[in-house]
Description:
- This protein has no helices and 11 strands.
- By secondary structure, the chain is mainly beta.
- The strands form 2 sheets. Strands 2, 4, 5, 6, 9, 10 and 11 form a 7-stranded mixed β-sheet that branches. Strands 1-3-8-7 form a 4-stranded antiparallel β-sheet, with no helix packed on it.
- It is globular.
- The termini are far apart.
Amino acid sequence: VQVVESGGGFLQAGGSLRLSCTVSSSIFSVNAMGWYRQAPGTQRDLVAAITRDGTTTYADSVKGRFTISRDNAKNTGYLQMNSLKPEDTGVYYCKIVASVGGPGGLWGLGTQVTVSS
C-alpha cells in the first residue's frame, strides 16, 4: 500500500493551495487521515484530521483557513489551504491510521509547501 502526497509548491503569503493524498488501496475508506506539517528543525505536528465518518479536527493555527476533506470513492483525501502565511511553510505529510493519535499507520513521503512574505 502506498500513500502519495501532491500539490505542494512555492507561493506568496495570502495565496491558496490544495494538497492531495492518494492511497493505493481501499483501506483508505475505513481509516482516518491526518495531515501533518514539519518545518526545518521542528517536530512533525498534526495540522488537520478527518475520521472515516467525516468528523474533522484542526490545529488552532489553521482553523478558519484550512479545510480537510475526503473522497472515499477515489481513495483520496485533501487539504485546502487558504490565506497562507509564511509560518505555514514546511513539508506536509499524510498519514492513514485506524484512529487519529493512535499507534501505527502509513505515511507518505511528504510534499513541500513554501510561503514567502
